[in-house]
């Protein structure tokens, strides 16, 4: 029997490490590009021969996948098609940063079969981009977007970050206005998460920058909801908006808690009630694959209670859909309102959940306090 999955492929290389980034990414490793792609091809061969797999979506993330030469990126996709059965109309996303793509590269991506482009803009203000350690300017971000449209792209996402130190509501409004003016097909808006071991986190710890204000960040989120709703975007996940029909199918795999396989250094997988990740270091990943050794580490067996809880928590991130009672019953054989009657009632009374005949979902206030809601559904340790 063929299993339907999504593939995440991690490209851990970048031109420069951003000040806020704690992802598994590394600058100045160009000498590993070709060896890394060969290792990826080996991993795909191993995974593909284990059992028949039909791939519905592919997502190349990083790092910055577009620092790879176009030919190498094309080889990755060709190897996917060789070792996996590609679903008709499969969604294939590549992340790109302004400053790493030109018109030729963008046209080449489309020729390689990529269907969706995700551009890491983060801000339309140069001082904010410098604070974040980005390698591009606001003008370059706009130019990259326009080059993508000229190259024929019809499914483009823009990433933006809010809740920055010293960021004002008016500056965030201006960034949103610029994004809306460009009319991307999808927008991902992320609240800055300050990580201690990053340069930005260290500057805040030393008192060089103020700690971001969570109340102001909440105002920024509400402003985004209002502005994007007025301009026709569908708010379909806590941090994601799309023009109708352009929801990210790959990320919906995660939010529906469906199987996915992660390939590459540090990539995570969830398959057959197991979760694991590959070794983090690109060099170690290459060495293991060249030696014929497994790249996976920390394999975790998930019991049903944990899978149930994670399915609810992830599903509640879906703004309109929420967790549908029929879907939950079909998957687990139980009634959601019986399994979590106390938790649902408590959060409903607190004004954080709303329940109708078909589903349970977060209220507008619940979206601001999502973590408080999610904790209610975690199984007892």
Overview of this protein structure:
With 381 residues, the protein is an alpha/beta fold. The chain is 42% helix and 24% strand. It has a 9-stranded mixed sheet with strand order 9-10-8-7-6-5-4-1-11, with helices on both faces. The model has no long low-confidence stretch (mean pLDDT 96).
User: How many strand elements?
Assistant: 17
Sketch the major β-sheet. 9 strands, mixed
Proportion of residues in β-strands: 15-25%
Number of helices: 16
Q: First CA to last CA: what distance?
A: 35 Å
Report the mean per-residue pLDDT as an integer. 96
The strand order across the widest sheet is 9-10-8-7-6-5-4-1-11
Computed over alpha carbons, the radius of gyration is 21 Å
Low-confidence stretches: none
- What structural category characterises the helix and strand content? alpha/beta
Task: Please tell me what the overall shape is.
Answer: globular
Helix fraction by DSSP (H/I, runs of at least 4) = 40-55%
Concise structural overview:
Helices cover 42% and strands 24% of the residues. The protein has helices at residues 33-50, 70-83, 103-111, 126-132, 138-150, 169-182, 199-205, 214-230, 249-255, 282-291, 304-315, 325-332, 336-339, 341-349, 364-368, 370-376, and strands at 3-11, 13-14, 26-27, 53-62, 85-96, 116-122, 156-162, 186-191, 234-237, 240-242, 260-263, 268-271, 274-278, 296-301, 323-324, 353-355, 359-362.
């Amino acid at each position: 029997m063929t299993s339907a999955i999504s593939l995440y492929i991690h490209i851990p290389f970048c031109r420069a490490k951003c000040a806020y980034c704690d992802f598994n990414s590394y600058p100045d490793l160009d000498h590993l590009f070709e060896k890394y792609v060969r290792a990826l091809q080996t991993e795909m061969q191993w995974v593909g021969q284990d059992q028949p797999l039909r791939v519905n979506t592919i997502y190349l993330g990083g790092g910055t996948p577009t620092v790879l030469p176009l030919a190498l990126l094309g080889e990755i996709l060709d190897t996917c098609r060789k070792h996996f059965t590609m679903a008709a109309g499969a969604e294939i996303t590549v992340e790109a940063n302004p400053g790493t793509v030109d018109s030729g590269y963008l046209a080449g991506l489309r020729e390689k079969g990529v269907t969706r482009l995700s551009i890491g803009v983060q801000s339309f203000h140069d001082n904010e981009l410098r604070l974040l350690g980005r390698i591009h300017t606001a003008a370059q971000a706009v130019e990259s977007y326009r080059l993508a449209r000229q190259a024929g792209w019809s499914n483009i996402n823009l990433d933006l970050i809010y809740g920055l130190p010293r960021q004002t509501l008016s500056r965030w409004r201006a960034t949103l206005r610029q994004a809306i003016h460009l009319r991307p097909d999808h927008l991902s808006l992320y609240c800055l998460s300050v990580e201690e071991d990053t340069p930005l986190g260290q500057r805040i710890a030393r008192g060089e920058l103020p700690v971001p204000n969570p109340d102001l960040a909440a105002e920024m989120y509400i402003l985004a909801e209002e502005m994007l709703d007025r301009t026709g975007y569908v708010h379909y996940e806590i941090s994601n908006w799309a023009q109708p029909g352009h929801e990210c199918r790959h990320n919906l795999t995660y939010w529906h808690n469906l199987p996915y396989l992660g390939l590459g250094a540090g990539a995570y997988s969830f398959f057959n009630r197991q979760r694991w990740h590959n070794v983090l270091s690109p060099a170690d990943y290459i060495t293991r694959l060249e030696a014929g050794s497994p790249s996976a580490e920390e394999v975790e067996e998930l019991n049903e209670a944990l899978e149930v809880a994670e399915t609810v928590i992830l599903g509640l991130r879906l703004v309109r859909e929420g967790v549908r009672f029929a879907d939950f019953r079909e998957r687990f054989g139980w009634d959601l309102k019986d399994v979590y009657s106390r938790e649902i009632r408590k959060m409903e009374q607190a004004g954080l959940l709303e329940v109708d005949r078909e589903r349970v979902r977060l209220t507008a206030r619940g979206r601001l306090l999502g973590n408080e809601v999610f904790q209610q559904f975690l199984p007892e340790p």
